Amino acid sequence: MAWTLIFLCKPRARTRLLVLLLVTCTLGSAYVAAFANSQAGIGAPARSIVSVFYPSRQDASSNLYRQIEDADLKYTVKQNPLLGMGFGKRFLQPTILPNIIQDDPYYLYIPHNTIYWVWMRLGPFGFLIFWYLIGALIVRGTITTRQLKDPYLQLVAIYIISVTFMEIIVAYADYQLFFYRNVIYFGILAGILMRLPSIDKQESQSIRTTPTQDSFTTKSEITHASANGNSQPTTSGRRS
Predict the structure, then answer these.
(1) In degrees to the nearest 10, what's the CA dihedral of 19, 21, 23, 26?
(2) What share of the chain is helix, strand, coil (3-state, %, to 5)?
(3) 20 to 30 Å CA-CA from 12: which of 26, 85, 119, 180?
(4) pLDDT (tens digit per residue) in 28-56
(5) pLDDT at residue 221, rounded to an integer
């Protein structure tokens, strides 16, 4: 997402971005091919990428747990179609999940998929408000990025939009909206995004109102010439 926004906002950098993309894809593919079966620490990212397409027995078990959990959440949503189930209640289990209360005491209250969690707890109206907030943040951020003049502030806006996408993607899989530190950080970023246009405007005004070195020199020369009596009077009137 960040690459796409920079590509759209920085036409002069598009060639370098394409070259960077090709180099990254080539090196990344070579890394995955070389370390996919390595048990060393350096091979952990490669194994994680491969496990998305060819999960190990442990990963397959974890995936199955999440699939059952998602099915239970959808069933719970259907039982409370208007107002949602509310907070503080266990979601329903038409398919019983493995008992992992020793590892996670809240596993029947907080599912891995916190997008479905919002839907199940708040119902369709709360779910719609949630997506309106996320969509408005992305649209506002994209427009702001195109309007900002300061390159640094543009990068800040691109970073915030990228984090928004990351937040949603991870929230589908692993408790992202439940961890308060993530939500607080995300809220701070949203507030910063709203302030970027005014900061950019202040920066632009300060640049326009700050006198340049040439203007200081000119004023100094005029003052020096006036003090020495070398200023020339205007000649618009007739000499008497």
Answers:
(1) -140
(2) 70, 0, 30
(3) 26
(4) 999 999 988 888 888 888 888 888 778 88
(5) 52
